Input
Amino acid sequence: MSAQDTKNLLQAGHPHHFAKNDLLFAHGDPITHFYVIIQGVVKLFRENQNGQEKTIDILNPGQSICANEILDSCSCHWMNAAAVGDVLAMRLPASWLKEAIENYPILARNLLNMISEKENLAEVEAEHQANMSSAQLVACFTQRLCVGHGLNPEGFELPYSKTLIASRLGIELETFSRAASKIREHGINIQGAHVSINKPDAAAQYVCDFCSIASECTAHQELSKSN
Amino acid sequence: MSAQDTKNLLQAGHPHHFAKNDLLFAHGDPITHFYVIIQGVVKLFRENQNGQEKTIDILNPGQSICANEILDSCSCHWMNAAAVGDVLAMRLPASWLKEAIENYPILARNLLNMISEKENLAEVEAEHQANMSSAQLVACFTQRLCVGHGLNPEGFELPYSKTLIASRLGIELETFSRAASKIREHGINIQGAHVSINKPDAAAQYVCDFCSIASECTAHQELSKSN
DNA sequence: CGACACTTTGAAGACGATCAACGCCGGTGG
DNA sequence: CCACCGGCGTTGATCGTCTTCAAAGTGTCG
Output
């Protein structure tokens, strides 16, 4: 979004605070607001009648919530959004977004871009689920975090609980834990919440051969060239 | 799309024929065209360096191909598209779509809607993969086909090969075959290519309790009320 | 210190993938 | 007309992986 958009946004909405585990909205609620996270982490998830949960995405400051639902033709939320810790989020009426789209074609264009990208990622994740072992899923996730930290040789701390990450990857916590020890032999070291990568190229090969978009993946490119 | 759009479309493009197994485009090809299927079936799939394939979607006449890729910022295709049988498809330059979007905001709006919907479906499918057994996946797929045929008590013929469907569902052909016999006890009868549903409500319950959007699913609603 | 959330580890079990063999059918060629 | 072949689907047996259940370990915070 442009600086101008941001300015408009700040005028149209108000910051709103959510405590840990608060729901920003739940499945079935009418869609009334659009959110932009200022601080904290929000978990999007779906829940079926058996109580099984599937975490769809983990959102960080700067990311927006439920733009796609507002743009879809439905009037109610399809999923739940919960504050993982304390969260501060800008809250705007849904109508504001709809009007903005009508008035600023450039915004519509940006949103198209963003949503296309998300759809693409969703497909790639489905592919990963089908073709990768749980250890590879964990390695892929970790690698991308690591690139986000500039491949710092000191390593970094996991930004979320392992329970949350496991849920995001569609595996059980126990499986995550076992996967974490298994990928040590591929150069990825997870000790408690601290992560470091010894052999980025080895790790990349272990994972990215099983990913159809490795050649376009920025994380993969960074890892490979760092040799 | 509106009738007017269709008219423009017919003027801007030319129909193009593809033989069985022809690629409409492949991963890495520059994005030059946009397609609308007139006749036949097209398979979208991704392939990793190990040769593992994942079928993303099966497209039928009337559906468009790669609108999302054109709207994404990338210049090359992220996936492959192959003709399952003989295919006739309208082929338009990608620039046509981009211009149309700039000129007709309503089209942008429709595309936003369509892509949001696809993203939503991709997420639901990920959820299904995580929470359903292979038998339930097959049942879900079959149910929706069945509703598409108006719940005809005579049943209907599968429109695709079982190999293709299995690949679409992310399971092996053998698993599909075993699942097909297992779901007979839940009122779904698959004999060769012929499918009939004896107990729609039983089948719906067997599957839809594991789906977070059962209450919004049109197929589920049809099945439930048919008792 | 004790309660609680989070994580690790072990053992058993279920499920789907894989390998292998066979049946069915349509097409091709002698 | 029959023999052969290849694509497709079914069925059986085995194996590896992930889930599940259970127990114990670690850490933080009141």
